């Protein structure tokens, strides 16, 4: 009954995570002469060579922190399903303002470049935790030069995340002019200002279009004002979902994000996904971040806007206030892809040069597989390290001309295991 209006369907079964892997080794030698003893801690293997006249005992103790052992106290009551381990959460089981060890308030108004009408405050009338829920309340009142007040909280500067399952359980505000959102922005804008470094909209809802919930990615190639919005738009169609009421009932809204794709979920149902696909790259002359900047840390944002270019497109109904956005919890889960990893990734295959212009080439390949998960690919040109890429494609610039250039690509998993090298030649005339 969930209408799938999706750009791209991709089976996503893996999600990547990074946890501390701290192999340490101790070597005890009871001998007077040892000819050679080496310990490779990165692979937690030990090679010992002894002479015939000595006795050598070498032990290696591997200390690996399993993700299961790092669950924060406040998340310890969360059931682990399909290996999803809670690594950060706010269950809102306290009273007063939001937990300052997790959230910061945005304070201010002025429209946010988007003609929004609210002034965000950190007052309890706009955001209050009652022991079970966080309620963000929008009020009609003159404040700071704006006609409404509300709240926006974020984890920026406190905690950020890369890959995993990010989920909220909430009841959305109703009424024309409301615009609640659960979304993520990059902690450092590595690839430049918006939209170059990306934006992940997990859930947005505009009050004049009830029960139509939107999930959207913004990138340099696809963003809202260039006519090519990259979106899993209208994930829930109110015309076919008479039994689902997002305004008066709690539902969960989430994504599963890995190194090459983001998939949206509603009450655990997959709504579809958007992924990096090199053959969709329109010119092949641009770096991968233009299509996929989602290989960096992002922080979480929760807010209730009033009006704005989208939320206010049909005006604001002043009879709806106070309007409330009630959040039961926000959780981040990850899977443990370091512990118990025993196999090297498969070798990348099918190298394909999608374009060569001057000394720039765009190379792609078929993704590797692994017993746990691929973290990234390491790319070498003529024996020199060129860079990492989280996806199965890379723009290679400044290739030497008048020669064959020898390219090698190694897949790497989260435990630091490498595949064999995929080799190819790119000739620049
Ligand atoms: Ca709760
Ligand atoms: Ca592996």
Walkthrough of the structure:
This protein has strands at residues 36-40, 45-49, 85-90, 95-96, 104-105, 118-120, 127-130, 134-143, 146-150, 152-154, 164-171, 178-186, 199-204, 214-218, 230-232, 251-257, 261-266, 269-275, 298-306, 323-334, 349-357, 360-366, 374-381, 384-389, 393-396, 403-413, 422-428. With 429 residues, the protein is mainly β. The strands form 5 sheets. Strands 3, 4, 6, 7, 8, 9, 11, 16, 17, 18 and 20 form an 11-stranded mixed beta sheet that branches. Strands 5-10-19-12-13-14-15 form a 7-stranded antiparallel beta sheet, with no helix packed on it. It has a 4-stranded antiparallel beta sheet with strand order 24-23-26-27, with no helix packed on it. The relative contact order is 0.17. It binds calcium ion (2 copies). The site of one calcium ion has 9 residues, from loops.
What is the topology?
Blueprint: E1 36-40, E2 45-49, E3 85-90, E4 95-96, E5 104-105, E6 118-120, E7 127-130, E8 134-143, E9 146-150, E10 152-154, E11 164-171, E12 178-186, E13 199-204, E14 214-218, E15 230-232, E16 251-257, E17 261-266, E18 269-275, E19 298-306, E20 323-334, E21 349-357, E22 360-366, E23 374-381, E24 384-389, E25 393-396, E26 403-413, E27 422-428
Bound molecules: calcium ion (2 copies).
One calcium ion (CA) binds next to loops.
Main sheet?
Answer: 11 strands, mixed
Shape: globular
Order of SSEs: EEEEEEEEEEEEEEEEEEEEEEEEEEE
Number of helices: 0
**DSSP strand count:** 27
Amount of beta strand:
35-45%
Estimated structural class: mainly beta
């Amino acid at each position: 009954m969930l209408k799938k209006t999706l750009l791209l369907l991709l089976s996503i079964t893996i999600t990547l995570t990074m946890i501390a892997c701290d192999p340490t080794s101790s070597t005890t030698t009871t001998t007077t002469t040892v000819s050679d003893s080496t310990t490779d801690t990165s692979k937690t293997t030990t090679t010992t060579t002894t002479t015939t006249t000595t006795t050598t005992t070498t032990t290696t103790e591997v200390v690996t922190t399993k993700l299961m052992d790092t669950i924060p106290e406040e998340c310890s009551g969360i059931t682990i399903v399909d290996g999803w381990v809670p690594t950060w959460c706010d269950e809102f089981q306290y009273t007063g303002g939001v937990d300052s060890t997790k959230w910061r308030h945005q304070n201010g108004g002025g429209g946010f470049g988007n003609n929004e009408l609210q002034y965000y405050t950190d007052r309890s009338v706009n955001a209050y935790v009652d022991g079970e829920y966080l309620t963000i309340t929008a009020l009609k009142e003159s404040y700071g030069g704006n006609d409404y007040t509300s709240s926006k909280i974020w984890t920026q500067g406190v905690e950020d995340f890369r890959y995993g399952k990010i989920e909220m359980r909430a009841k959305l505000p109703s009424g024309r002019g409301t615009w609640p959102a659960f979304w993520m922005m990059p902690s450092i804008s590595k690839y430049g200002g918006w939209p170059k470094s990306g934006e992940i909209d997990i859930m947005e809802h505009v009050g004049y279009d009830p029960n139509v919930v939107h999930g959207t990615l913004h990138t340099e190639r696809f963003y809202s004002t260039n006519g090519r919005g990259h979106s899993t738009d209208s994930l829930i169609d109110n015309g076919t979902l008479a039994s689902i009421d997002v305004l008066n009932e709690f539902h969960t809204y989430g994504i599963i994000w890995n190194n090459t794709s983001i998939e949206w979920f509603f009450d655990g149902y997959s709504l579809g996904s958007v992924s990096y696909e090199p053959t969709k790259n329109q010119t092949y002359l641009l770096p991968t971040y233009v299509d996929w900047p989602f290989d960096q840390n992002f922080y979480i944002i929760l807010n209730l806007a009033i009006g704005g270019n989208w939320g206010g497109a049909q005006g604001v109904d002043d009879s709806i206030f106070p309007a409330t956005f009630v959040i039961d919890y926000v959780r981040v889960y990850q899977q443990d892809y370091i512990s118990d990893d025993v196999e090297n990734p498969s070798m990348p295959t099918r190298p394909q040069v999608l374009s060569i212009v001057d000394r720039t080439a765009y190379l792609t390949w078929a993704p590797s597989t692994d017993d746990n998960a691929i973290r990234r690919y390491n790319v070498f040109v003529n024996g020199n390290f060129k860079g990492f890429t989280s996806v199965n494609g890379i723009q290679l610039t400044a290739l030497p001309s008048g020669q064959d250039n020898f390219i090698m690509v190694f897949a790497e998993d989260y435990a630091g295991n490498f595949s064999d090298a995929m080799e190819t030649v790119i000739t620049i005339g």
